[in-house]
C-alpha cells in the first residue's frame, strides 16, 4: 500500500535548506471549529480523510502538538489507521511504516508521565517523545526540576528552547529540531499552535516558516461554543491555493506558502 497519489505529489519535495519543511494540517467543521464546547475532542475527519492524515504522518520526520492538545486529547500520533503492511518484500520492502517523532510544545513541563505517547514509547510501540520547554536563565530547581526528572524517567527527551511570554519561539524550535536531524515537521494543532504557525507565514520565502497547509473540512457545523483558531488576513493571504480533493464526505483543501 502506498500514500494517495495526490498527497505524495503534493509533499514530494518536503525538504527545505537549513530548517525543517513545515506542513500545517488540521480538521475543521464548516463553521471553522476544530473542537467542541470547552475543547471537547471531536472526530471531524471521516474514515478516508483520517487515513489520509495517517499517511501524512508517515511522510514527516516529526509531528507536533501543543500541551493543550496533549492534555485534552491524550493523542497517540501514530499510523494505526493504515492497512497492515504487505509482508511481501517485493511490494512493501518488508518494512514497517515510518513513525514520526512526537513533539509536544510544553513550556512549563505539564505533560503527564502516564500519557499515551510515553506509554507507547515504553512498550516499544512509538518513538521517544520530545518535550519542548521554555529555557530558563538560571539553573532549574524545585518543582520544575522535578517535573523534568519525572518526564525524563518516563522516557521523554526534554529540550529547552527560548520563549516569549510562555510561548516557545517557533524559529528557536525549528532550529533546535533541525540540529537534531528533523527535516520535515507536521503540525497538527491545537488552536493556539495553529495560530502561532499561521503567524509564521510571510510572502518572503527567506523569512516564512510554514511551507504547506492542508485542511480537512467535514460537512457539519459545531456552533458558537466550539473552539476556533485565529488567522490574520495579512498572513493567510500569502498562501497559494493549490488543490481540492474529496475523500468520503470530506473536502481536503491544500495550499502552498
Ligand atoms: N481538529 C483538529 O484537527 C485538532 C483539534 N485539536 C483540538 O485543539 C484543542 C486544543 O487547543 P489549545 O487549547 O489551543 O492547545 P494547543 O494544543 O494549541 O496548545 C497550546 C499551548 O501550548 C503551549 N505553547 C508553547 N509554545 C507555544 C507556541 N509557540 N504557540 C502556541 N502554543 C504554545 C502553551 O502552553 C499554549 O497554551 C483541543 O480541544 C483539541 O481537541 C487539536 C489538534 C487538532
Ligand atoms: N485529522 C484529524 N481529524 C480529526 O477529526 C481530529 N480530531 C484530529 N485531531 C488530531 O489528531 C490527534 C489524535 O491523534 P490520535 O488519533 O490519538 O493518533 C488529536 O490530538 C489532534 O492532534 N485530526
Automatic annotation (TrEMBL):
Q: What is its EC number?
A: 1.1.1.302
User: Which region ranges are annotated with the description Disordered?
Assistant: 75-97
Query: Where does the record place the Bacterial bifunctional deaminase-reductase C-terminal domain?
Result: 20-251
Q: What's the superkingdom here? A: Eukaryota
Spell out the reaction equation it catalyses: 2,5-diamino-6-(1-D-ribitylamino)pyrimidin-4(3H)-one 5'-phosphate + NAD(+) = 2,5-diamino-6-(1-D-ribosylamino)pyrimidin-4(3H)-one 5'-phosphate + NADH + H(+); 2,5-diamino-6-(1-D-ribitylamino)pyrimidin-4(3H)-one 5'-phosphate + NADP(+) = 2,5-diamino-6-(1-D-ribosylamino)pyrimidin-4(3H)-one 5'-phosphate + NADPH + H(+)
Describe which pathway this protein belongs to, using the record's wording. Answer: Cofactor biosynthesis; riboflavin biosynthesis
Compositional bias per record (Basic and acidic residues), positions renumbered to this chain = 83-95
InterPro entries for this protein: DHFR-like_dom_sf (IPR024072), RibDG_C (IPR002734), Riboflavin_Biosynth_HTPR (IPR050765)
Signal peptide start-end: none
Pfam families from the UniProt entry: RibD_C
* SUPFAM superfamilies in UniProt: Dihydrofolate reductase-like
Keyword entries, A-Z = NADP, Oxidoreductase, Riboflavin biosynthesis
Entry function:
Catalyzes an early step in riboflavin biosynthesis, the NADPH-dependent reduction of the ribose side chain of 2,5-diamino-6-ribosylamino-4(3H)-pyrimidinone 5'-phosphate, yielding 2,5-diamino-6-ribitylamino-4(3H)-pyrimidinone 5'-phosphate.
Which family is this sequence assigned to?
Belongs to the HTP reductase family.
Q: What is this protein called?
A: 2,5-diamino-6-ribosylamino-4(3H)-pyrimidinone 5'-phosphate reductase
Amino acid at each position: 500500500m502506498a500514500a494517495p497519489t495526490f498527497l505524495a505529489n503534493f509533499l514530494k519535495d518536503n525538504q527545505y535548506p537549513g530548517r525543517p519543511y513545515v506542513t500545517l494540517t488540521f480538521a475543521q467543521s464548516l463553521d471553522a471549529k476544530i473542537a467542541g464546547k470547552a475543547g471537547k475532542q471531536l472526530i471531524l475527519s471521516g474514515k478516508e480523510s483520517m487515513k489520509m492524515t495517517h499517511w501524512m504522518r508517515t511522510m514527516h520526520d516529526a509531528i507536533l502538538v501543543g500541551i493543550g492538545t496533549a492534555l485534552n486529547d491524550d493523542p497517540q500520533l501514530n499510523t494505526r489507521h493504515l492497512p497492515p503492511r504487505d509482508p511481501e518484500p517485493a511490494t512493501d520492502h518488508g518494512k514497517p511504516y515510518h513513525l514520526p517523532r512526537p513533539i509536544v510544545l510544553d513550556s512549563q513541563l505539564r505533560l503527564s508521565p502516564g500519557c499515551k505517547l510515553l506509554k507507547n514509547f515504553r512498550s516499544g510501540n512509538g518513538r521517544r517523545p520530545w518535550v519542548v520547554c521554555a529555557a530558563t536563565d538560571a539553573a532549574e530547581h524545585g518543582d520544575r526540576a522535578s517535573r523534568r526528572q519525572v518526564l525524563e524517567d518516563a522516557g521523554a527527551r526534554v529540550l529547552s528552547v527560548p520563549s516569549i511570554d510562555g510561548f516557545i519561539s517557533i524559529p528557536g524550535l525549528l532550529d533546535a529540531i533541525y540540529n537534531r536531524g528533523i527535516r520535515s515537521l507536521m503540525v497538527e494543532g491545537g488552536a493556539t499552535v495553529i495560530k502561532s504557525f499561521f503567524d509564521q507565514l510571510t510572502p518572503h520565502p527567506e523569512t516564512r516558516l510554514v511551507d504547506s497547509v492542508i485542511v480537512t473540512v467535514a460537512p457539519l457545523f459545531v456552533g458558537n461554543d466550539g473552539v476556533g483558531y485565529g488567522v490574520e488576513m495579512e498572513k493567510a493571504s500569502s498562501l497559494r491555493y493549490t488543490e481540492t480533493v474529496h475523500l468520503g464526505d470530506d473536502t481536503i483543501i491544500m495550499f502552498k506558502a
